[in-house]
TrEMBL record, chain A:
Annotated ranges, domain Inactive transglutaminase fused to 7 transmembrane helices: 24-183
Keyword match DNA-binding: no
Stated name of the protein: UUP1 family membrane protein
Record has Magnesium as a keyword: no
Native species: Desulfobotulus pelophilus
InterPro entries named in the record: 7TM_transglut, Transglut_i_TM
Spans traversing the lipid bilayer: 6-23, 306-327, 339-365, 377-400, 406-425, 437-455, 470-490
From TrEMBL, chain B:
Database matches in Gene3D superfamilies: ATP-grasp fold, B domain (3.30.470.20)
Protein name per its UniProtKB record: Alpha-L-glutamate ligase-like protein
Annotated PANTHER family: BETA-CITRYLGLUTAMATE SYNTHASE B-RELATED, RIBOSOMAL PROTEIN S6 MODIFICATION PROTEIN
Short name of one Pfam family: ATPgrasp_ST
Organism encoding this protein: Desulfobotulus pelophilus
Length: 503, 321
């Protein structure tokens, strides 16, 4: 009886999942395959501040014709506020206003962009010659010396800019550059030096686009006018031209954010790369469709980034269930492998593996030392948590020093779980010996790698995020696996001794 | 690596892990009765209420401040065993065969001093050996005097007999002998030798170590198939009684033979392992289904044991009266 009802539930889950996905595919034109549509960057600027019970006016500089991109949609989400976009051309601003507000406030501005190859050869009117720059007496000599040195090896505004950046960024800075850099930030100093040399330039600010990043801030760059066009320079590397995936957000004009009636204002940016047709975007915005309530795109961007990962967990859970019930792999901790697999997704495989083995290995060594101290369990695990945090910090710092990796996302490895794994494995070591630790450790890693291999498939990532209802089908499969009472694959080896039984 | 086909296994009626969990452990063992077997102290109290003999309990230590006074209670020259109440798989059991002055002698001959004993008890109280690290109680029991029958069959540890009991019927049994490889422990996966026992007579059927058949004890070279457990029916009755005692339908009862007191129930397991099938050269499934399909279920213990000896014995007709 209870078997029958279980099969009903399984059937119902599969049917619901499939039909919902199909309806949403038809009604909302969500493609089943990733990458078949144009990529869309959705960028969200989040302005937060504390209002002080006075009329509030917040004005944020927003992009207009950023090189390399085309804006096709923008919107603001800030209930209770009046919103309008003022100004035009290179000085466009989003303005929020409200009669009175109190407490912490959050304003959102979202913009959607597609890649758009820049039309070259667009001529600009030359800007006014730069104003005279005022220097402190010792600085003036230093500035002149730098311009002279750079000028000797250059012929055009571009080459002069490159030479100045070279002088400012060499590792052993010459005295003049060092003196000026104590006073000015690099990009400011660059514009001042160029102005001194009579070349118009300005500081622009933009963001590097990377899928799923949250809480990003703007990166300053310098634009130099070279006779008939503006050219972007990276003041740190000297790279010329707009870097790949760099969105110019704020260009010239007054400040990035003006606020009256509030304090501690802060702007941060979240971004996400979507492969959804523009048609769906349009429908989401006029969200009256009955099936769009399942769409993850309604969520704030930083949460969407979280859900992109979260919705992959059912797939990992299915892999674990399969590996344990059908294959019979022994792992340490039931769902530990899924979490390791997810961490690999964020760190990418090889660095993730190295980090994981290094941290667990070192942790085990230190733990064996702890066992001499005769600590109570809770204290021991707490100590291991701290050891793991220290190890991760050291590893990240070392990686950045060596320059082969941009450091590990700290949240990637679930700290407490690693600490528990170390504790369990070391107890296992003491009680059952090294062999059992190896068996379970290898088992966990193998299952984690399988889960990782599945979760990183673009098609699975696409389906799980755009069709969250498909997870019902995974749930149904897991329920079915839970009914399996046959032999595990490894048991066929374990019971092999039955073959030569003496009668 | 050698493999066996799932159809052959099925033909032999081998019980697999998934089926054990699903069709027996989950179905016949109510979760709320687990504490009775997971806590040795509770098992012991229950056993004495049901008249099931267990090793004599001297005293328990349940608080850290009592640890300091333990030594006075132990210095009478006799051997004892310290066990964690919530330990599993023989973890945290310390066996002391005797004491001399201020030092204690382990069964392996190693000497321990008072502080070692105290530290071991503190570790037990802190939950080092208990499931999930919960605080625990230490039991101090009399040691078991090994039956001379087992002389030369065991390395250091005392052999124990595992009987699978299903709905009160003894189903299958094996003798577990500690070896040097298993470090004096009776756990098969650590290298102990398992000897399958005939349900009718308690006679050894075949022996395995590390999943491979062996004929002689690896340390003492004594032939393993000549072993016979005396007073077999009494032992099976003892195991079967654990069903009424715990209310668990599918258990493994571990029983030891004491030279003076005869069979004693050592501990119970609500998730007994599957290796017993290999030491017996036979699957559990047929026997379990035979009991599941029984119509009359109001037999008393004696009838159940006789029925099992008759039905599951290899040497039929030789059942002892």
């Amino acid at each position: 009886m209870h078997r029958v009802s279980l099969y009903w539930i399984v059937g119902l889950l599969i049917l619901t999942g499939l039909s919902l996905a199909w309806l949403r595919h038809n009604q909302m034109q969500i493609p089943f395959k990733p990458g078949s549509d144009t990529g869309v960057w959705l960028i969200e600027a989040r302005v937060s501040f504390t209002a002080s019970q006075r009329p509030v006016l917040a004005s944020l500089s927003i992009p207009k014709m950023p090189p390399g991109f085309r804006i096709f949609n923008e919107q603001a989400a800030s209930p209770g506020y009046g919103f309008s976009i003022v100004g035009q051309e290179e000085n466009r601003r989003a303005e929020w206003s409200r009669r009175t507000a109190e407490g912490s406030q959050t304003l959102y501005y979202k913009i959607q962009l597609t890649r758009h190859p820049e039309k070259t050869g667009k001529l600009h009117d030359p800007p006014a010659s730069p104003d005279t720059v005022y220097w402190q007496p010792p600085e003036a000599t230093a500035a002149l010396a730098i311009i002279e040195t750079a000028g000797a090896t250059s012929s055009t505004p571009e080459s002069l800019t490159r030479e100045i950046i070279k002088i400012l960024t060499t590792s052993e800075k010459e005295q003049n550059a060092a003196l000026l850099l104590t006073e000015y930030r690099q990009e400011i100093l660059l514009t001042r030096l160029l102005a001194e040399a009579g070349i118009p330039s300005r500081v622009v600010q933009g963001i590097f686009l990377e899928d799923g990043r949250r809480n990003q801030s703007l990166v300053p760059m310098v634009e130099v006018f070279t006779g008939n066009q503006w050219i972007l320079f990276n003041p740190v590397t000297g790279q010329q031209g707009v870097p790949e995936n760099f969105l110019v957000w704020h260009r010239g004009g007054p400040s990035l954010l003006d606020l009256s009636g509030g304090s501690s204002a802060r702007v941060s940016f979240s971004m996400i790369f979507q492969s959804i047709p523009a048609l769906e975007m349009a429908r989401i915005q006029s969200s009256s469709n009955g099936f769009s309530f399942l769409s993850m795109h309604h969520l704030p961007l930083d949460q969407q980034g979280i859900f992109k990962l979260l919705l992959l967990i059912p797939m990992g859970a299915l892999v674990v269930t399969f590996m344990r019930i059908i294959i019979g792999v022994r792992t340490s901790g039931t769902f530990m492998p899924v979490l390791i697999g997810m961490a690999f997704l964020q760190t990418s495989l090889v660095p993730g593996l190295i980090y994981f083995l290094a941290i667990v290995g070192t942790g085990l060594l230190l733990r064996s030392y702890l066992s001499y101290l005769n600590l109570l369990l809770v204290a021991r695990i707490a100590t291991i948590v701290i050891i793991v945090i220290t190890l991760i910090t050291l590893a990240s710092l070392m990686a950045i020093r060596l320059g082969f990796h941009t450091g590990m996302p700290v949240t990637a490895f679930p700290l407490i779980i690693i600490a528990w794994t170390i504790e369990r494995m070391s107890i296992l070591w003491e009680e059952e010996g090294m062999r059992e630790v190896m068996v379970q450790g290898t088992g966990s890693l193998v299952v984690a790698l399988c889960a990782y291999a599945f979760m990183r498939q673009p098609i699975i990532a696409h389906l799980s995020f755009n069709f969250p209802e498909l997870n019902l089908i995974i749930a149904a499969l897991i329920l079915l696996l839970g009914q399996y009472t046959g032999y595990r694959l490894f048991e066929l080896h374990r019971f092999a001794a039955m073959k030569d039984r003496t009668p | 690596m050698s493999w066996i086909s799932p159809f052959t296994l099925k033909g032999m009626g081998i019980l697999g892990m998934n089926r054990r969990n699903h069709a027996f452990v989950a179905r016949y063992n109510p979760r709320c009765h687990y504490p009775l077997v997971d806590n040795k102290l509770k098992t012991k109290q229950l056993a004495s209420a049901y008249g099931v003999p267990t090793p004599t309990l001297r005293f328990i230590v349940s608080a850290q401040h009592e640890v300091r006074h333990v030594n006075k209670q132990l210095q009478n020259g006799e051997g004892f065993a310290i066990k964690p109440a919530k330990g599993s798989g023989g973890k945290g059991i310390l066996v002391i065969s005797g004491s001399r002055g201020n030092s204690f002698i382990k069964s392996s001959g190693r000497r321990l001093d008072e502080r070692d004993i105290q530290r071991h008890i503190s570790n037990i109280l802190a939950g080092l050996y208990s499931l999930g690290g919960t605080p625990d109680t230490a039991l101090i029991e009399d040691i078991i005097q090994m039956d001379p029958l087992f002389e030369g069959y065991s390395h250091q540890g005392i052999p124990d007999i595992r009987v699978i009991v299903f709905q009160g019927y003894p189903v299958m049994a094996m003798l577990r002998l500690a070896t040097e490889a298993s470090d004096g422990k009776a756990n098969l996966h650590q290298g102990a030798v398992g000897v399958g026992l005939d349900m009718a007579t308690g006679k050894g059927l075949r022996a395995l170590q590390f999943g491979k058949p062996v004929l002689l004890h690896p340390d003492t070279r004594k032939p393993l198939d000549s072993i016979t457990i005396p007073d077999w029916k009494h032992l099976l009755t003892l195991a079967s009684r654990c069903y009424e005692m715990t209310g668990l339908g599918y258990i493994g009862a571990d029983i030891v033979l004491d030279r003076n007191r005869g069979p004693l129930m050592l501990e119970l397991n609500a998730r007994p392992g599957l290796a017993i099938q290999m030491t017996n050269g036979e699957g559990l499934l047929q026997r379990l289904t035979a009991i599941e399909t029984l119509t009359c279920n109001n037999r008393n213990i004696d009838e159940r044991v006789s029925w099992a000896m008759e039905s599951f014995g290899k040497t039929k007709g030789t059942t002892l009266p």
